[in-house]
């Protein structure tokens, strides 16, 4: 346990006390209690040791009265609401709110938002809160150009694509791709082109969090129904596996705990601060490595396809 400027860090000491207090805070958040304060009372015992008493103070639970979005024009509220893990009438849970922000950013429909993009207004008389997400539509279209490493006959095709979001079906994309494949017989056929060009058009709805099986499909007649079914299965597997690997749990904030030494009931207490830092999951590094490996494998697979 290190000390400095009246602050005690609980990286190595006070771990059990911190774990209990962090669990108490998480339970209070799940119940919708916005106000949470914790302190430790330290008393000397007759045998020379000390006793530690934990005290937790919480406020009344709050429920969500209204959730609304402002600033979006291309998408309906329902598309964004389905990505949330909060709903009107639920207890207000700050952790679930942070998870909802992560999920909104993963939709790929909006410009990235953060905690400052969300306004929470309390109504202390009714014990309710109103949540407003200030969002902005993401870009409607994008383009890409890729080529092989080395010659086309060895590294694969030369390709370019243009994609745009449809104005009416806002969660659908229309795309046109142009691919050039090397012609291995061109050098023996004087009048043959060195490469063959193929144009591919498609209509797709990418995998969207909260939409489940209603998203992730591609309509591409050139691929046939077998190819479209394979693309649908691949998109569903990619979306679900990658979201599971990344997770949506935010990093919990440290908890400042007042530590008060009780000399006697009539003597003022000397207060320090114990900074309880949440324990980092031992699986976080493994999860990050798995996400990186999966992204590389998918990139190689798509390039080969």
Q: In summary, what is this structure?
A:
The protein has helices at 15-30, 77-81, 94-106, 152-155, 224-246, 284-304; strands at 2-4, 7-9, 36-44, 50-58, 63-70, 118-123, 128-134, 141-146, 158-165, 173-182, 195-205, 217-219, 255-262, 270-276. By secondary structure, it is α+β, with helices and mostly antiparallel strands.
Number of helices: 6
Distance between the termini: 55 Å
Return the structural class: alpha+beta
Q: Low-confidence parts, pLDDT < 50 over ≥5 residues?
A: 1-13, 147-155, 185-192
Strand percentage lies at 25-35%
Mean pLDDT metric: 78
Overall strand count: 14
The Rg value, from CA coordinates, equals: 28 Å
How would a crystallographer describe the biggest sheet? 6 strands, mixed
Q: What quaternary form is this?
A: single chain
Anisotropy-based shape: elongated
Helix content: 25-40%
Arrangement of strands in the largest sheet: 1-2-14-13-3-4
The string of secondary-structure elements, in order, is EEHEEEHHEEEHEEEEHEEH
């Amino acid at each position: 346990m290190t000390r400095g400027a009246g602050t005690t860090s609980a990286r190595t000491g006070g771990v059990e006390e911190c774990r209990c207090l962090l669990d108490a805070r998480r339970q209070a958040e799940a119940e919708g209690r916005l106000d949470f304060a914790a302190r430790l009372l330290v008393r000397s015992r007759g045998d020379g040791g000390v006793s530690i008493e934990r005290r937790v103070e919480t406020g009344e639970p709050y429920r969500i009265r209204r959730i609304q979005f402002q600033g979006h024009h291309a998408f309906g509220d329902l598309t964004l609401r389905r990505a949330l893990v909060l709903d009107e009438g639920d207890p207000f849970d700050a952790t679930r709110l942070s998870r909802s922000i992560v999920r909104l950013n993963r939709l790929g429909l909006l410009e990235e938002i953060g905690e400052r993009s969300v306004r929470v207004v309390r109504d202390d008389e009714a014990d309710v809160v109103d949540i407003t997400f200030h969002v902005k539509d993401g870009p409607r279209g994008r383009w890409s150009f890729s080529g092989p490493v080395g010659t086309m006959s060895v590294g694969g095709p030369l390709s370019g694509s243009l994609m745009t979001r449809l104005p009416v079906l806002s969660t659908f994309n229309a795309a046109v791709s142009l691919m050039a494949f090397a012609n291995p017989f061109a050098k023996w056929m004087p009048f043959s082109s060195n490469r063959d060009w193929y144009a591919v058009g498609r209509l797709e709805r990418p995998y969207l969090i909260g939409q489940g099986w209603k998203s992730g499909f591609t309509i591409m007649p050139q691929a046939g129904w077998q190819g479209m079914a394979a693309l649908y299965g691949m998109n569903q597997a990619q979306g679900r596996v990658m979201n599971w690997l990344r997770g949506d749990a935010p990093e919990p904030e440290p908890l400042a705990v007042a530590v008060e030494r009780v000399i006697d009931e009539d003597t003022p207490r000397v207060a320090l601060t114990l900074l309880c830092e949440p324990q980092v999951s031992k699986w976080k590094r493994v999860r990050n490595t798995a996400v990186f490996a999966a992204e590389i494998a998918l990139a190689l697979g798509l390039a080969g396809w």
